[in-house]
Specification:
Elements lengths: L1 H9 L8 H6 L3 H27 L3 H16 L3 E8 L4 E8 L11 E2 L6 H7 L3 E3 L17 E9 L2 E10 L7 H48 L10 E8 L7 E8 L3 E9 L3 H19 L5 H15 L6 E9 L4 E7 L5 E3 L4 E3 L18 E4 L5 E5 L1 H4 L12 H7 L6 H12 L8 E8 L2
């Protein structure tokens, strides 16, 4: 009588609609036993929910679930199988109770391989009280007698099977079946959460790999080494805030024994700034090899960038040309900080007029000329230097930068080390770029 009631119950697509009728058919002893089981079942569900909320790795999560379910409810075997629609296969995602190595996580069951496929074909819960009573169905393993398969759904889409087995005949109670159906809904949620987590993890890995590749590509856009030229020593460095950034410096060999030095800063940080920087670099190098003066170069580059740059994005740029014979330096500025001139005895700040940043509006830039004497230096830098902030929200500017520049042995390394000591453990908040030009003869 019991097995007939259960067969009728499980053959229905709506398990809950028959629960009251089934419970009414139970004896008083069975009702008492049912109540005693509720606490154990509740604790099992509570553990499963906690696992779902704390374990995002699908394999580990499902492994712990099937082991807990099997141990708590006394099943011989328990497994979760995921359905692959493209290949029409069931893949074992987790299992417990199989002592041999015939079945294992990752094993795939082809269409109709095993009685589990009956639940797939009919899209309903299937319970065989004794698989030997169904010779038309072929179990994967005859050592189990009772066999339950519960379809797993997410948003009404079939995603897999929760399977439970026992070596005893008619081993699953009504309470077991109800609990398994409840567990199936939680497992479906766990599978979907894990799928979303895995997709997000893969997307992050792809993005991280892209950033690493972008960093490698951008690194190649910077000069591999400083030019070796008579009478001058030139050094440069750039430390992006993220994997890639919008700061850039470069050296350009020009005709008639001249060297061009440029330092630029695209508004913003990260990948978008790096892409704009790369585009602007190409335009700049094309123009710089044609035009003769820094002002004409900036004017021409600005005309291109007005068309190329997105709205509200711009670039500051300082470009200078060194005459290595005379020691004269001609420079033009598009919204950037003027360089600092360090002589033997003092620090000079230029008060020249600075034009608009590139990419905003038409502008005619101006040339300015200085001459470096032996032992004097020019320091070009981006605002990532002066806007570096420590934990007290103080900037590396004014007194701090001046103190660093007044060091008799001041160079780009000492400035950067002073900056890092000032910032301490605070995170870098902008790209940091410094170029040093020294007259050595």
């Amino acid at each position: 009588m019991k097995s007939e009631i259960i067969e009728q119950l499980i053959s229905s697509n709506d398990l809950e609609s028959n629960e009251n009728n089934v419970i009414n058919n139970l004896s008083d002893d069975n009702k008492t036993q049912n109540n005693n089981l509720q606490l154990k079942d509740f604790m099992l569900l509570d553990r499963i929910v906690k696992k779902i909320n704390s374990i995002l790795d699908k394999s580990e999560l499902l492994k712990q679930i099937v082991q807990d379910v099997s141990k708590t409810l006394g099943f011989t075997r328990c497994a979760v199988l995921l359905y692959h629609e493209n290949s029409d296969q069931l893949e074992i995602a987790a299992l417990t109770g199989w002592e041999d190595d015939k079945f294992y996580p990752g094993y795939k069951l082809k269409r109709n391989q095993g009685i589990v496929w009956k639940a797939v074909r009919e899209q309903r819960i299937i319970y065989f009280t004794d698989v030997l009573d169904h010779p038309d169905e072929i179990p994967c393993d005859f050592t189990s007698r009772s066999h339950v398969d519960i379809p797993l759904y997410h948003h009404n889409k079939f995603i897999g099977i929760l399977n439970a087995q026992n070596i005893r005949v008619d081993a699953f109670s009504r309470q077991d079946l109800r609990l398994l159906k409840t567990l199936a809904s939680h497992i479906s949620i766990a599978i979907e959460n894990s799928r979303l987590f895995e997709n997000e993890k893969k997307e992050k890995e792809i993005m991280q790999n892209d950033l690493i590749e972008a960093k490698t590509i951008q690194k190649r856009l910077f000069p591999k080494k400083a030019p070796e030229i008579p009478n001058f020593s030139i050094k440069g460095m750039c430390k992006p805030c993220y994997q890639v950034g919008g700061d850039w410096f470069d050296y350009i060999e020009l005709p008639y024994g001249k060297i061009g030095v440029v330092l630029a800063d695209v508004s913003g940080k990260g990948l978008s700034a790096a892409l704009l920087m790369s585009s602007a670099r190409t335009i700049f190098r094309m123009v710089a090899n044609i035009e003769e003066s820094p002002s004409r170069v900036l004017t021409k580059v600005n005309e291109y960038l007005i068309e190329e740059f997105p709205t509200a994005r711009f670039m500051t740029m300082l470009y200078l040309i060194i005459d290595i014979t005379s020691g004269k330096i001609i420079m033009a500025n598009a919204g950037h900080m003027w360089p600092v001139h360090k002589t033997i005895n003092k620090i000079n700040n230029f008060n020249f007029e600075s034009g608009f940043p590139l990419g905003i509006q038409s502008e005619k830039y101006k040339d300015y000329q200085i001459t470096l004497k032996k032992g004097e230096k020019l320091f070009l830098y981006s605002d990532g230097v002066t806007e570096a902030m420590n934990s007290n929200e103080q900037f590396f500017e004014d007194e701090e930068l001046l103190a660093s520049l007044q060091n008799e042995m001041c160079n780009i390394d000492s400035i950067y080390n002073d900056l890092k000591n000032f910032v301490g453990n605070s995170a870098q908040n902008d790209d940091i770029t410094i170029v040093e030009i020294e007259k050595i003869n």
